[in-house]
Write a structure and sequence with these properties.
Chains A, B: It comes from Streptomyces pseudovenezuelae. Chains A, B: InterPro entries: Homeodomain-like_sf, HTH-type_TetR-like_transc_reg, HTH_TetR, MT1864/Rv1816-like_C, Tet_transcr_reg_TetR-rel_C_sf. The structure is a homodimer. Helix content of chain A is about 70%, strand content about 0%. By secondary structure, chain A is mainly α. The termini of chain A are far apart. Chain A is built from ten helices and no strands. The first copy, chain A, binds a DNA duplex (30 and 30 nucleotides) through helix 1, helix 2 and helix 3.
Amino acid sequence: MDRYSVTMTNETRPVSRRERLRAQTLQEIEDESFAIIDAEGVQALSIAALARSMAMSAPAVYRYFPSRDALVAHLVTLSYRQLAAAMSQAVEGSRKAPRTRVRLVVTAYRDWALRYRRRYGMLFGERAGDLPSEVTTRTPLDQAMALLVDLLVAVQDSAPAGGASGDRTLDGQLRLWARSQERPDIAPSVARAAILIWTRVHGIVSLELTGVFDHQTLEAQRLIDLEIDNAIRFLGPTGA
Amino acid sequence: MDRYSVTMTNETRPVSRRERLRAQTLQEIEDESFAIIDAEGVQALSIAALARSMAMSAPAVYRYFPSRDALVAHLVTLSYRQLAAAMSQAVEGSRKAPRTRVRLVVTAYRDWALRYRRRYGMLFGERAGDLPSEVTTRTPLDQAMALLVDLLVAVQDSAPAGGASGDRTLDGQLRLWARSQERPDIAPSVARAAILIWTRVHGIVSLELTGVFDHQTLEAQRLIDLEIDNAIRFLGPTGA
DNA sequence: ATCACTCAGTTAATGGTCGTAACTATGCAC
DNA sequence: GTGCATAGTTACGACCATTAACTGAGTGAT
């Protein structure tokens, strides 16, 4: 699945010195890479620059990653995991109302994007050489989506269900999507709300990051709050 | 404003041979650049590769653009203009209902993004060295927004106005935005709908381009239609 | 018609990048 | 200790951006 990830060695196997050093170097590569990316963007992450910052010769990096693209791909999957983790932690153990927790999750998403804007751009923007989107984007983000879906189910339970979309075909596709998530139980209305929240928030955050709102006096958070309201209202009764 | 743009010479000034050749070469640079970008992405656009495809020496390009970044910046503004033009043309002279025309404009946006996906990524994704977002993104896209706003005003005129957002501060910011667009007449509800449509569609299209929906059985166009409905419904009565 | 100037284009060179090849030296298993 | 696997090295080739120095064609004034 992910050839380059650090495999958790829970077994108290006698971790050899070599393995330890290798893991340590790998960690340093990841840390330095993210430092460079956060400071100057992915395009500034070159094998040479990375090696230089580690006081290492450039070819040595190839012992860890077969190419610059492979390194970037690895960093992308790490970032996805990190983003998903940030969203999970935002509601972990929270006893607030489901609707509030939706806001927490979404805000965590935005905060992560703002805090690590270069990484967010790396995930959803650049994709220089069109990375293997397959494995990369699937699992970790699906996990975050599952989280959102659960919250929305809870929201719906606490309010009279309903809300027709008016597009039977779309509902069918949403059912398929639910099945592809191995959650055939979730209703189209919930799936619809989850997807709409994601696309809406991504749209706002993405434009916020490109600076579209900078010159305008719009606060993205207000737009997001409004959009969450809209999406959830969709879940409840039938309309407003 | 834009040092590199071709200035329309409507005056029947005796266009010198030199000027004609220069304009011609500039045109060829733009065309070849877009060809390379469309085929392999911006990251593959190198001065060297461009010059090679024109059977020209690389340093010669510097007679036209002081750096690779300047070239890319120029291509970005051209692309913005092209996108805005595509949106305008989609409804030019259309006698359909305003609501239908909104759909036409938005669909033109998506179609352009799908047809020139690399360029769209260049506009809203990559932005490698954080280009001068100031001049770049302002005028041409504002024009497209103005178009959308006009259509939404028409929509609102044909339906009972109203629709409170519940966020007075946001409404105030929207009023400021309207004034910054030099259109102080547009109501917050209209501005809100315009911005929401833009962010929503951008979010969907952007995720569609990164391939998030590929493995899922969702058609982006259906999501977009749904979102337009939602945004417009917002304009009308008060809720559903 | 020619002279001087401008400027599009050239070759040559610097210093950066990715990536490969060939080598050295260390850790580890026996 | 001997031998293998491997993390690291230096040396290299191919590409890139950009500058410097030069060539030659277009242009405008005499």
